[in-house]
Design brief:
The chain has one domain. The protein contains 10 helices and no strands. Helix 5 packs parallel to helix 10. The protein is about 75% helix and about 0% strand. It is mainly alpha-helical and about 240 residues long. The protein starts with a helix and ends with a helix. The chain is globular and about 50 Å long.
Length: about 240
Amino acid sequence: MTAYNDLVRRQVRVWKIRMLKDEPAYKKMVKGLQIKINNKIPQRAHDIITRTVKGIIHSTLFGLRFVPSDPPKPGLSLEERDTQAQEMITKYRKIASIEGAGTGAGGLLLGLSDFPALIAIKMQLLFKLAHIYGYNTLKRNERLFLLYIFQLTFTTPNQRKRLFPIIENWNEYKFTGIDWEQFQKDYRDSMDIRKMLQLIPGVGAAVGAWANYSLLNDLGQSAVNCFRIRYFKENK
């Protein structure tokens, strides 16, 4: 076992502890503000999010829309995979930030269009990362894994406690179905103040850029650590 792998094991443990922590008091206060903001957002926005999530789920499971043209990468060390993954996350953070700045500057209507675009960017990143870590997204099982990563990132600590054992024992997990309604609810509820502020007229491009950048970073780091968990499980 290399010194790098030992370091990564510790990083994964720290990440898992952080992900499973109960929400701190300040986040509960923010939730109250978020509910007030949500009530000011037109129902149209919530409908767009719901339809988009349903469409992304269908595209992920049954389409080739997000499958990268480059094949999975065999024979790389974990350190090499991690390095390439961070480069990919950096690239997609920039893409999402530019997209968020453009729509954030355009007010409510363009702000609404950002939701479908952002989810598509998130899924593109997940598919790219899967291939970097050597997993073939032409396989339905690997696409399901990406959906679990997505849900793990954008859900509550209580839901994460249910999802983590599935992630940690993926190769032994007997798939019985994802609760799609819960999946959609989790994602809508996770649209925290970072994104909701973008829909309020006058806030502008800066919030859109910052929100998209940070959300892509959250997803990217979750994906990296989930793939690391599988790597250690498969290379004992």
